[in-house]
Amino acid sequence: MKSILCYSILFFAALQASAQAKREIFFADVTVYVEGGTYYLTGSKGGGGGPQGFALLASKDLKTWSVPARSTDSLGMILTKGDHTFGTKGFWAPQLFKEKGMYYMTYTADEQTVLAESASLLGPYRQREVGPIDGSEKNIDSYVFKDTDGKHYLYCVRFDKGNYLHVAEFDLKTGKIKPETLKRCFDQTQPWEATPNYKSVPIMEGPTVLKLTNKYYLFYSANHFQNIDYAIGYAVADSPYGPWVKYKNNPIIHRSIVGENGSGHGDLFEGVDKQLYYVYHIHNAADKVSPRRTRIVPVVKQWDKDKGVYTFSVKGNEVIVPVMAEK
């Protein structure tokens, strides 16, 4: 009798786990925007069909998500291929931000960074003039940072026998960079950035930047995204252009910390509870990369009085698995 009861408990637990896995969110290159006590999640869409572009999901608790009630699209699409937008394929790595009452989205398509705008957070995001930010050469993974002096900077990846992070001053009115300010952030210099589990050219990507007490913190991912050691670290500087000093204890998010392969390429955000979080993606399974799954982890920020900087780590035992609400 006991063995039957134990079997039944295990069976129903497995069914519950399977049901939750089916409800998981398969966004990669993810970002979370917070407004009015609600979290909004978007990213590179993974799995299934549907229109190319970006969909938006909403949540009050970071755990259960659904298409926003006010959305005019049943799939929650906020930017769609061909709707006054640049790009034919490869819609990746969106970022949302607000400036003077307008909402903006930067994203990648056709291996170019793109800026679109909307009067509503829920879109649709479109372009006045369809085209990339800087079509002079391929560049991906855009992140627009606004400094305390009001200047904007575009961080992105440019190709040079590898993927390297660059920064340039950005004119939000024209949607263009100032080419004369373009500068590479840093090279591949730490062992975690190039592990042997998947050989590739140097790859550093997925930037997020924040400023705290006059220091700039650049969070980024390294290794090829198919590498199980795809991970996240950060560097610190006294200016948006660097020079950048990488944290000696990088990476701060890695499979050895959060327990799942390919943990990378996301974004930092402050929760409604004032807790700092990092949203990222992981591999689909131990033997399968895509479609990648979405994860969120609390971030610990501590002040290092001796060095005059903040240090960052994550609560690897408190990873949140976002799921779609049951219909």
TrEMBL record:
Any Pfam family hit: Glyco_hydro_43
Record carries keyword Nucleotidyltransferase: no
Gene3D superfamilies xref list: Glycosyl hydrolase domain, family 43 (2.115.10.20)
SUPFAM superfamilies (alphabetical): Arabinanase/levansucrase/invertase
GO molecular function per UniProt: hydrolase activity
Keyword annotations of the record: Carbohydrate metabolism, Glycosidase, Hydrolase, Polysaccharide degradation, Signal, Xylan degradation
Keyword Signal: yes
Signal sequence extent: 1-19
InterPro entries associated with the record: Glyco_hydro_43, Glyco_hydro_beta-prop_sf, Glycosyl_Hydrlase_43_Enz
Family of this protein: Belongs to the glycosyl hydrolase 43 family.
Protein name: Glycoside hydrolase family 43 protein
Taxonomic path: Bacteria, Pseudomonadati, Bacteroidota, Cytophagia, Cytophagales
